[in-house]
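for the record, two folds in this file. i put them one after another cuz i was lazy. first one right below, seq on top, structure tokens after. the second one comes after a little note so u can tell where it starts
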Amino acid sequence: MKIRINPGTRRMLCLVGAMALGGGVPALFRPAGAFFENCAGDFVPPMVMLMLLFSFIDVKFSRESTGWSHLRIPLFMVALATCAYFAVGKLTGNEDFAVMAFLIGMTPTANAAPVITGLLGRREDYATVSVVSTNLFTAVALAPVSALVFGDALEIDTFSLAWKTMMLVGVPFALSVIFRNFMKPVAAFIRRWKFLSFYLWMVMLFTVCAQSSAYVSKQEHLSPTLLLEIFALAASLCAINFAAGYFLGEPRFRRECSQSLGQKNTMLMLWVGLAFFNPVVALGPTFYVVCHNLWNSWQLRHADVNETTIK
């Protein structure tokens, strides 16, 4: 008897499988763990840039690409980060948990969000504006907001963060404009291979999860109970972000705003956690990437099953 699996379910299983495989490889094969921990991160930015090029090749910006929700998103980020810091600190009595909540709240939109938004049949141009605006906002606002919350500002290199964002997003965007307007055969070639975005995302998920797993496996002092508590915190904040984004967005942008607020640039805050705090704090963004990608995989399944409701 042949079992039929609809395309949405197949996508979900592929993504969950990529995450599970990535999480298991470092534990089963230690040399691979060392590779992913030290080198694999170098492969992620080029993959993101290629995914964005596939996404941007058909994106044309207009006044309809933006909405007031692009202003509400960063305001909510600050509000959630501040409230979560004090609430989690009060409830748990654990400063590391409170800092995790703050960093997750202040995390900007993931660079891959336009790609996922496009796969969901929604407007990639809206998500692209969110990527640029929230990443620049975090680069500028993280130090002063941390000073207000912690009483001591983080020594963040604002220019460096802003430059990295502009390079990661700006280069594929500029190339897409050049190809679309002056090199139409190249643009047509890229469109033919646009379906590779999904497979690039799978490879990126595998890489990020393997890198995170290798990092977690080295923290021998962490108990399974503590790891579950951190995962629960990340999952709760992930649910809040996706839900709040839906209600913050204009009626025509509800799903786009939800994606922009929920899908986070966790690699940025993972670095902040390691650079300014400690390895335990860095686990918050590490687990968040698993949570938001589990939700993304479910959304893709739902999008294909109920295609008419999202287009």
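(here's the note) second protein begins now
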Amino acid sequence: ISSNDIINFIQSMIDYEKKLDLDQNNLDDQSDLLIYRRINELLDIFISSLGETDQEQREYFHSLALSILKCQVTRAHLAGRLLMILAQNKEDLEEILIIFQQYLSPVYFEYILVKLASYLGDNNGSCPFVQQLSIDEKFHLALWFINEKDQPLFVFDLLKNQVFNKASVDKQQCQVLLRQMRQSSNLILRQQVLEYAIPWRPDGTLYADDT
């Protein structure tokens, strides 16, 4: 099955959902009420099964993610997961945030941003580009989003799960950054940082043997 076949199949289901909404408001038939959930399940399976992609496939899947978002913004978390898998550099990650800011209300954008942050901070390959970076590169990626793009909430899970808990990290730099984020005007971020317990002993060694 080609990438185009997969996209066409998913797109046909989304089009069918739109037709139901127009014709019946998706309320007349109990079976129709499940179409939204079925599409979500299909997309989740598809996204979870993605392996390495070439440039042509990335372009196909990028178009699919945008189509998903345009058709139903409440699937932004799925579109975001797909786009993060496809990301090749920090600019691609920034583009995801820019796109979502265009399509989502500020309140819903922040809700989705928390989900994207959890994907970015996962160790399970939700963003292969980030997983390939060294600890120092991850730290500087986070600094770029914090200082240059004003998106500290997006990268806090990454710092917490893949940087701060590593023995080789510069702990003084981490402490400075944590103090900075504790003063954030974003109350969600401030709460997360205040609740975070640093994993270092007073002598600088880790409580856990995580190198």
